[in-house]
């Protein structure tokens, strides 16, 4: 594995142990170098989908949204889809309907032969994307997260609970009407139903993808049962939308997990890619990068 420091060395001219001068590489060269190495290691196509939200959470377009489709289209040009896809995800999440479009597009191209790799974090709608893979590669440092929707940064389950508390309180104490009218005036009309629909949509999409893709070798009954067990944890009030579900937790839930540490060559290749992209966000002001192993890329700044 090229460590963080070793990749930084590649960005500047330096001498090796024999005193030979090593010419500096560009960030673009380094990303391509390690994406190509990962593809050579697996014999599969690779697309890295990276958000820079951990570097600067206030930048626009950090989330999964419909503009990402342009990036995926760019990255599939000239690719032999018969070789399958390893999709590397590092994202805080985003719009479930945008994730739906991405899933439909990629599976239409790769005929269900998609594996998701999570070097560090794939949260919210990123977790939903992982549900559409045949397997998920995770390491001890990797995590997925809850998929319950957020509205203005407020978890959908909290909003739903507030409405239900209001109804119960009004049924038993009509004098509290003024208080609840003031509290609920923050939300637009019919917002409760929008929240409930959002919760249901996330569950329906993730459940459909788990059943159709990850558990496709099982009977319909068994596949649905395993998906429901997973969704009972993912689409629930987990006290925080930022909860980290690590590799062992994901295995307990029933995800098909490939442990990164079981294959040293694969682990080294994945983490080298991860370091290359995180260093990129430290040194260049991008919100998001979508890039394949052939060098095709899409950058949002």
General description of the model:
By secondary structure, the chain is α/β, with parallel strands linked by helices. The chain has a single domain, classed as 2-enoyl-CoA Hydratase, Chain A, domain 1 (Alpha-Beta Complex), CATH 3.90.226. Helix content is 48%, strand content 16%. It contains eleven helices and 14 strands. Strands 12-7-5-4-3-13-14 form a seven-stranded mixed sheet, sandwiched between helices. Strands 6-8-11 form a three-stranded mixed sheet. Helix 3 links the parallel strand 3 and strand 4. The longest helix is centred in the last third of the chain and has 24 residues. The two termini are 29 Å apart. The relative contact order is 0.19. The model has no long low-confidence stretch (mean pLDDT 90).
Low-confidence stretches: none
CATH topology: 2-enoyl-CoA Hydratase, Chain A, domain 1
- Topology order in helix (H) and strand (E) letters: HEEHEHEHEEHEEEEHHHHEHEHEE
Number of domains: 1
Characterize the biggest β-sheet. 7 strands, mixed
Q: Identify the CATH homologous superfamily.
A: 2-enoyl-CoA Hydratase, Chain A, domain 1
Mean pLDDT: 90
Helix content: 40-55%
Short précis:
A hairpin with a 2-residue loop joins strand 9 (150-151) and strand 10. The chain is α/β, with parallel strands linked by helices and 301 residues long. Helix content is 48%, strand content 16%.
């Amino acid at each position: 594995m090229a460590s963080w420091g070793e990749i930084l060395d590649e960005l500047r001219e330096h001498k090796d142990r024999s005193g030979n001068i090593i010419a500096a590489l560009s960030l673009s060269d380094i990303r391509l170098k390690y994406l190509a190495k990962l593809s050579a290691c697996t014999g599969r196509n690779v697309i890295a989908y990276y958000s820079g939200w951990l570097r600067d959470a206030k930048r626009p377009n950090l989330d999964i949204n419909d503009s990402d489709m342009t990036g995926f289209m760019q990255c599939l040009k000239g690719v032999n889809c018969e070789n399958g896809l390893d999709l590397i995800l590092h994202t805080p999440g985003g719009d479930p309907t945008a994730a739906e479009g991405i899933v439909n597009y990629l599976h239409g191209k790769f005929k269900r032969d998609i594996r998701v790799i999570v070097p560090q974090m794939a949260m919210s709608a990123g977790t939903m994307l992982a549900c559409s893979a045949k397997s998920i590669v995770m390491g001890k440092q990797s995590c997925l997260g809850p998929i319950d929707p957020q509205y203005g940064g407020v978890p959908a389950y909290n909003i739903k609970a507030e409405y239900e508390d209001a109804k119960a309180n009004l049924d038993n104490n009509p004098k509290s009407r003024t208080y609840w009218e003031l509290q609920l005036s923050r939300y637009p009309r019919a917002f409760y139903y929008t929240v409930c629909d959002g919760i249901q949509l996330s569950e329906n999409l993730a459940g459909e993808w788990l059943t159709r893709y990850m558990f496709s070798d099982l009977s319909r009954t068994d596949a649905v049962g395993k998906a429901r067990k997973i969704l009972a944890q993912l689409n629930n009030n987990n006290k925080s939308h930022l909860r980290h579900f690590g590799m062992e937790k994901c295995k307990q839930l029933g995800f098909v997990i490939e442990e990164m540490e079981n294959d040293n060559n694969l682990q080294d290749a994945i983490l080298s890619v991860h370091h290359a992209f995180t260093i990129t966000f430290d040194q260049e002001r991008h919100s998001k990068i979508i890039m394949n192993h052939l060098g095709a890329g899409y950058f949002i700044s």
